[in-house]
Structure formats: structure tokens, C-alpha cells
Amino acid sequence: MSLKKKSVKNTVVGLDIGTSKIICIIGELDDGGNLNIIGFGKHPSTGLKRGVVVNIDATVASIQRAVEQAEEMAGLQVRDVYVGIAGSHIRSFNSNGIVAISAGEVIHADVDRVVDAARAVAIPADQKILHILPQEFIIDQQDGIREPIGMAGVRLEVKVHIVTGAVSSAQNIDRCVRQCGLSPADIILEQLASSYSVLSDDEKELGVCLIDIGAGTTDIAVFTQGAIRHTAVIPLGGDQVTSDLAIAFRMPPRAAESFKVKHAGCMVKLASDSENIQLSGAADRSAKFVSEKSVAQIVQARYEELFRLVLSELRRSGFDAVIPSGIVVTGGASRVNHLIDLAETVFEMPVRVGTPENLLGIDGVVDNPSCSTAVGLLHYGLKQAHDGDERTNKKSGGSFFTQVKNWFKGNM
Ligand SMILES: Nc1ncnc2c1ncn2[C@@H]1O[C@H](COP(=O)(O)OP(=O)(O)OP(=O)(O)O)[C@@H](O)[C@H]1O
Ligand SMILES: [Mg+2]
């Protein structure tokens, strides 16, 4: 079917290339400034391992299917897509830069120069910078400035969080996307994307840790005072739980996966010990029924290990004491039963499950933690569009990007 080239000026496209699934999601801003999901496509992903592309052909085929589905639903053809990146090759650190303010008041060129100064750090040759995320600006002695443009002073300083990733991993994502006839508008750290769809401004202001537990990786991002302070990736996710169950109950991985989704809970003390769960597909025919408790023993051990790894990462980086809003868990693997009970026991702070918010449209996207990254990519794309528009045409009225600005004002 050939698709009508409907106007794409008000649309943004997110492409989440996950370890278990690929999601393409098309969002449109309506006249009232609401973000509507108008296209959604999802296809199992077989070409990734622990968040990294290991088979280009398989990945390209899955992307194509997901994009086709979304295009068909939206009735338009997409080209520019915001794509996520994850994997244990991701590194991050904080840096700062200082410049003199050229004309007595800060202009965009001063901000560009100071951010350039902050990026002047040695990084390994096999890594490339993915993001330079300003945390705060300091003008003379005044710190905590978010929007420095137009402010008077002589010395401008910026504190930034820099995220780098393996050149080869970013290139492989780029290659897969281009082979599908698409053009990557930007490649975004997945937990940064998820943070746009699941965290509130208040949480980011007060201090919060986002944990996105996917199939292959667990991605962490810490926010305090409204800015991102720390990011990390742990190469463990829901796949590990599935493989533990597959080994323990001698099941093929596919059967173990659906068994997990149906029956897994991660708190032994909240599980029943009556042996009433059937092991369909198990190799050992004699052990046909197991109890919730014996399943939870396996699942809890793995989730607990994962949470302890996150906690030690938080302690190591010194952020465990500055996140009063606690922990927000998202990603498909956050859907396991009793997750909040276990997480609150390990972290000893408030925990909630984060799902995509502030959007209208298709059931199964809103309230689905598996879609947090894809929806977050849309939010990120809209923000980029807004920032770009604000810079190039400060006085434009009634444009798409002015609506984006209004939308952000209303929702973020
Ligand atoms: N109800 C459930 N209970 C337990 N685990 C679940 C449930 N639903 C989904 N999962 C797990 O969530 C994982 C998929 O999550 P998600 O879709 O966020 O991953 P992904 O984005 O493909 O992977 P990654 O982000 O690691 O690249 C799988 O391991 C799946 O088994
Ligand atoms: Mg993911």
C-alpha cells in the first residue's frame, strides 16, 4: 500500500531499538497543544544483545516492520526519527567550562562557547560524545542559573553532564536506521529519553533516581535540582530472570518468558506455597506443578541482586543521600508482581513504577512501562524542536514550535 504523504510538520517520531522489541511511535501536536499518539508499531527484536546491535540485518528487518505498522496507522511516511542508545559501553561524567561574557550580557554565542569549553576533555578514541547536558550556569558569583540568556555579568561558567558511547555502537544504530530509509534526527541515551516521559518536574527538582529495567540492560539516571547528575548502565535485565527460570525449571527460553510474565512475583514472603502453577513446555515431565513460592525464590534473587547493584552504584557516586523523591522504576521488567515491595526493602526509600504520562491516544502505550523510552523520545524530539525554534525565530507566533513551547509549559 502506498502511503499518502500527509503533512508531517506537526509530527515527531520516536524509535526505541530495544533488546526485546522495537517500537516506532508517531506523535502529533493538535491545535490545543496536546500530544496525540497517531501511529504505533511494535515488533520483536532479535538483532540486539544487552542493548547493543549485534546483527544488522535482523535489526533492520525488525525496524522496518515496526515503522511500517506505525506509518500505516498514522497514514503518513516517516523520515526523521529520534533513536535511543543503551549498552554497557555508555560512560558519563561531569565537567565544567568558563568564558568571559563578550558584550556585558549573555547571548547565545556565549552559551555555545562555554559549553564548548566544558566539552574540551580527553575521551578515549573509541568513544564519542552523545550528550552535553547543562546542569547549571554560574554568572560571576551567582550560581543555580537555568536560563542565562540576557543576564548581565563578566564571567560565565557552566556545569555539564557529559555522556559518551562507543563510536561503533552509535554507528551501527545509525547504519540500521539509514538502511530502513530513515534519517536519525538524534541518538539519545535511553534513560534520558525515559526520564522525559515518566518523571515529574517536582521529582527532578527534589532529587530522584530513575531505573529503567529492560530485557538486556538496566539504565540509571539521577536528577537533583532539576538537572541530570549521574547516569549508568548495568548489563543485566529481564532476560536474565527468564534464563534463570529456564535453567531452574528446564524450560525452553520462549516458554520461560511467557511463564515469567504470567506467574512471576519477586517477593517470596508474599507468594503462596500451594503447588498449582503448571510448567507448560518443561523438559522434565514429572515436575509439572510448582508453587508461586518456588518461582519467587528464583525471581527475587535476581531482582534483589539487580537492585543491590543499583544501590552500590548510587552509593559509589554519592547520590544515595540526595534523592528524597526516591526511586522511579520503569521498563518492561518493572511489571513483575510485588516489585515495589522488594525495591522499598532494598533501597529503604519510596519507590513507584513510572509509566508514560501527558499524552493522548492508543491504549497499551499510556500506562505501559515498556513504552517509556519510545514516548520519551517523542518528548525529547519536541523539546529539541522547541529549543531550535526559540533560537532561530524568537518572535514567531502561532508556529508548530510555539505550540510545543506552550505544551511544555503546560505539562512539564
Ligand atoms: N509482567 C511482566 N513480568 C515480568 N517481566 C516482564 C513482564 N512484562 C515484560 N517483562 C520483561 O520486560 C523485559 C522487556 O522490557 P522492555 O520492553 O523495557 O525491554 P527492551 O526495551 O526491549 O530492552 P532494553 O531496554 O534492555 O534494550 C523482558 O525481559 C520481559 O520479560
Ligand atoms: Mg528499553
CATH structural class of the largest domain? Alpha Beta
Summarize the main sheet. 5 strands, mixed
How much of the residues is beta strand, in percent? 25-35%
Structural class category: alpha+beta
The low-pLDDT segments are 395-412
CATH superfamily of the largest domain: ATPase, nucleotide binding domain
Bound molecules: adenosine-5'-triphosphate, magnesium ion
Could you characterize the architecture of this molecule?
By secondary structure, this protein is an alpha+beta fold. The chain folds into three domains: 11-88 and 168-199 and 357-362 and 370-411, 2-Layer Sandwich (Nucleotidyltransferase, domain 5), CATH 3.30.420.40; 91-164, Dna Ligase, domain 1 (2-Layer Sandwich); 234-353, ATPase, nucleotide binding domain (Nucleotidyltransferase, domain 5). 36% of the residues lie in helices and 28% in strands. It contains eleven helices and 18 strands. The strands form five sheets. It has a five-stranded mixed β-sheet, sandwiched between helices. β12 and β13 form a beta hairpin. α4 crosses α10 (372-392), α6 (238-248) runs antiparallel to α8 and α8 (292-317) packs parallel to α9 (339-347). The protein is globular. It starts with 10 loop residues before the first strand and ends with a helix. Mean pLDDT is 90; it is low at 395-412. Bound molecules: adenosine-5'-triphosphate and magnesium ion. Magnesium ion binds next to loops. Adenosine-5'-triphosphate (ATP) is lined by residues 18-21, 51, 86, 214-217, 237-239, 242, 257, 260-261, 264, 331-333, 335-336, 370.
